[in-house]
Write a structure and sequence with these properties.
Layout: H1 5-21, E1 29-30, E2 37-38, H2 41-57, E3 69-70, E4 73-79, E5 100-106, E6 113-114, H3 117-124, E7 130-133, E8 136-139, H4 144-161, H5 167-174, E9 185-189, H6 193-200, H7 220-235, E10 239-241, H8 249-261, H9 269-272, E11 276-280, H10 285-295, E12 301-304, H11 312-321, E13 324-328, H12 329-334, H13 336-339, E14 346-349, H14 361-367, E15 374-377, H15 386-396, H16 404-416, H17 421-431, E16 435-436, H18 443-446, E17 452-459, H19 463-481, H20 489-505, H21 507-511, E18 518-519, E19 522-523, H22 526-540, E20 545-549, H23 552-566, E21 572-573, H24 579-590, E22 597-601, H25 602-605, E23 616-619, H26 626-633, E24 645-652, H27 656-669, H28 680-683, H29 687-694
Parallel strand pairs: 3-8, 4-9, 10-15, 10-16, 11-13, 11-14, 12-13, 14-15, 17-24, 20-22, 20-23, 21-22, 23-24
Antiparallel strand pairs: 1-2, 4-5, 5-6, 7-8, 18-19
Helix pairs in contact: 3-4, 7-8, 8-10, 15-16, 16-17, 19-20
Length: 703
């Protein structure tokens, strides 16, 4: 068909329009035998990317040939069998076997075509969205195919040079939480537990039958905890059980041991003879022994503690004859060689936040005790800094979050300093599968717990206290103005902080002069007067109170005074007590005819103890760390408590206590990502800020 002049004019007009809308056509070679334009690859890419839409907008349709395939490339991570045969390591990247390879596929379905090394080589010489693979033109947006091929080649080269030790980065790649990933990961092959995580971001354990050797009925959330622990144990993957205090972490671990050591799910006899090592604070040794005896009487338990503990062949004999050995952090460090002589079935670290400083002797010792499986128990996975979280995770899965410096740069600083949501998302993705945390506020758990009421109890200073308070501030300000003492600034500030706390407690506490708490029938401390009112009311109503102070000396004063007031011993639980005496105090308080009040220092009585006889918790002075205070409260507010629990937090009006209490309320909202450690932040304030924080308000003093 020959075009007449009119048709030729229309066609050339449309071609002019096309060139105007898509100028790259002007650089194409026209076919002399037709009206076709011959597009080189670069211009064809531009046509697909932007030209087709521009031409369509002016009424010129663009039809793509069927031979050009639109593809969605995806990555696959595949574990390689270790040298000498056998199954790939369950926790690839965290153990000695770290062999795996990346593969590139066309599509994200199981039947997707996996590209060969030759295909990757062919792709490496091409650029842009439009590429040719096996003689077929393919298009992937954003040059995804060529970028993915480059990524795979780079990863293979790195793996060939040195097997990766940074499993955290590998994990972020698999879960799609890394900016380095050019296309999604569609499959993980041969890495067992990681298959689920790549798909859903969480582990999906199967439910296990209630253990036959357990003499307790697990609550639904505790059964789910057992399922999770058993799933991790199957693959040798370490875990952090971080349920709120009082929700039965100990019971869930005991259930796991029963599950593995009794019934059809039990391990072969040889494995069953390998015991589990429980490492905990000294105050909890008796608690673990009692809980095993109560809930798993068939399991044989030995306590490795005290000056008469066995060693050498005698210890080896005990180890062979029991299922569980319970020891303390201090003994784990002292007897490290003995405890490390043979691998354990599992090591369980209770109150694992005590090992957050990885440089302590105890932390180093516990980390290097050999075990097939590692578990950490803590009610506060993050107390003040994200480094606490890294330390606990690293305890059970060494290397998962990288070294301390890598973790600080990759996660801690962006989250704590900049509140970077992307860094927080990456950290959550990598830690979520290994941490199980349920809180008392969860709807499914709250129904199992009694009601709790929190009260801020505000006390005024007496005139004597106010005078001492002002004297401490005057002394501090004079020291801050003295240039010769500037190098001692931090020490002076923290010392003044402690003195002000003591003044707010009682003049006799600060002066340490041995004088009476009450003089001529008049109270010398607003706090002690309030404490007297509350505990007397508690006793009259037949209830019990648990009173916390951070100062053992003040606790001793209160013990003597309250014992005289009640005409019977009001005991003090403190760090200087031996295990036997500590256990006796707890048992006495929990008994039906126990004392109405138990005093405890925050460090000695703030973790691990079950004190559900108390339905009133009183914080006389403040540690000013929400996580630590909540742990102490949870001695009474826990599973097994069937009464309403009232929590009283004492604050002196118009003093530093009131202003820091306001800060705690704000800090509690960020308690999982707090940035200040202890009270050192106070010493970093400027002089005028310090004075504003410390100074005494007019409303502080009682009439």
């Amino acid at each position: 068909h020959r075009l007449d002049a009119h048709e030729l004019d229309e066609l050339t007009t449309e071609l002019a329009t096309a060139v105007r809308e898509f100028p790259e056509l002007g650089r194409a070679d026209p076919d002399r035998g037709s009206l076709d334009f011959l597009l080189p690859t670069a211009i064809a890419e531009e046509l697909f990317a932007t030209g087709a839409a521009a031409l369509g907008a002016v009424g010129i349709p663009v039809l793509l040939p069927r031979t050009i395939a639109e593809v969605r490339p995806s990555l696959t991570l595949r574990a390689l069998a270790p040298p000498g045969g056998g199954a790939p390591a369950a926790m690839v990247g965290l153990r000695e076997i770290r062999e795996f390879e990346w593969r590139l596929a066309l599509g994200d379905k199981p039947d997707a075509i996996t590209l060969t090394d030759a295909d990757l080589d062919e792709l490496s010489g091409q650029k842009g969205d439009l590429v040719r693979v096996r003689g077929v033109w393919m298009r992937a947006e954003g040059a995804a195919l060529t970028r993915a091929a480059t990524f795979v080649a780079t990863q293979r080269a790195l793996a060939a040079a040195e097997p990766p030790s940074d499993f955290g980065e590998l994990f972020n790649l698999v879960t799609g939480e890394s900016d380095r990933l050019p296309v999604p990961v569609s499959r993980v092959e041969g890495l067992s537990w990681l298959d689920d995580v790549a798909d859903t971001g969480v582990l999906r354990p199967e439910s296990v039958a209630p253990p036959t050797g357990l003499t307790a009925t697990l609550r639904p959330y505790q059964q789910r905890g057992l399922d999770w622990l058993a799933h991790l144990a199957t693959f040798g993957v370490g875990g952090v059980l971080a349920d709120d205090m009082g929700l039965g972490k100990t019971l869930q671990v005991i259930a796991l041991e029963c599950h593995e050591r009794s019934g059809p799910s039990a391990s072969p006899a040889d494995d069953r003879r390998k015991p589990t090592l429980v490492v905990c604070p000294m105050s909890l040794v008796g608690n673990w022994a009692r809980e095993f005896a109560r809930f798993a009487p068939a399991l044989r338990v030995a306590i490795h503690h005290g000056p008469s503990r066995e060693s050498g062949a005698a210890f080896a004999g005990i180890r062979e004859s029991v299922d569980i050995v319970v020891t303390t952090f201090a003994i784990a460090a002292r007897d490290h060689e003995l405890l490390s002589s043979r691998p354990w079935h599992r090591i369980v670290v209770d109150e694992a936040q005590h090992l957050k400083n990885v440089n302590t002797i105890a932390a180093k010792a516990v980390r290097t005790v050999p075990a097939d499986h590692r578990l950490a128990l803590t009610g506060t996975p993050v107390e003040n800094r994200l480094e606490d979280l890294r330390a606990v995770i690293d305890l059970v899965n060494p290397g998962l979050l990288g070294s301390a410096s890598v973790f600080r740069a990759r996660y801690a600083e962006p989250i704590e300093r900049d509140r970077d949501p992307a860094a927080l998302r990456r950290l959550s993705a990598i830690t979520r599968p290994f941490i199980l945390r349920r809180e008392k506020t969860d709807p499914a758990i709250a129904a199992d717990l009694p009601e709790k009421a929190d009260f801020a109890v505000r006390a005024n200073l007496t005139v004597e206290q106010a005078a001492l308070y002002r004297a401490v501030i005057d002394e501090l300000m004079a020291a801050l103005r003295d240039k010769q003492q500037r190098t001692l600034r931090r020490r002076n500030v923290l010392a003044a902080l402690t003195r002000l706390k003591q003044v707010c407690n009682h003049p006799a506490h600060y002066l340490a002069d041995g004088t009476d708490l009450v003089r001529d029938g008049e109270h010398r401390s607003g706090k002690v007067e309030l404490l007297a009112d509350i505990v007397s009311t508690v006793a009259e109503e037949g209830d019990r109170a648990l009173v916390f102070t951070q100062f053992a000396a003040f606790g001793d004063m209160l013990s003597s005074w309250l014992s005289a007031e009640f005409g019977s011993e009001i005991p003090l639980l403190h760090g200087g007590l031996g295990r036997t005496e500590r256990d006796r105090l707890v048992a006495d308080f929990q008994s039906d005819d126990g004392p109405p009040v138990l005093l405890a220092t925050l460090k000695a009585g703030g973790t691990g103890l079950n004190l559900t006889a108390a339905n009133n918790v009183i914080h006389v002075d403040r540690w000013w760390n929400p996580a630590v205070e909540d742990q102490a409260t949870d001695r009474a507010y826990r599973i097994g408590q069937d009464q309403k629990v009232s929590v009283h937090r004492f604050v002196c009006v118009g003093t530093i206590e009131e202003r820091i209490d306001d800060m705690i309320a704000k800090k509690r909202e960020l308690s999982r990502l707090t940035v200040a450690a202890g009270e050192n932040w106070v010493s970093d304030l400027a002089d005028d800020e310090l004075f504003e924080l410390f100074r005494l308000r007019d409303e502080a003093v009682s009439e």
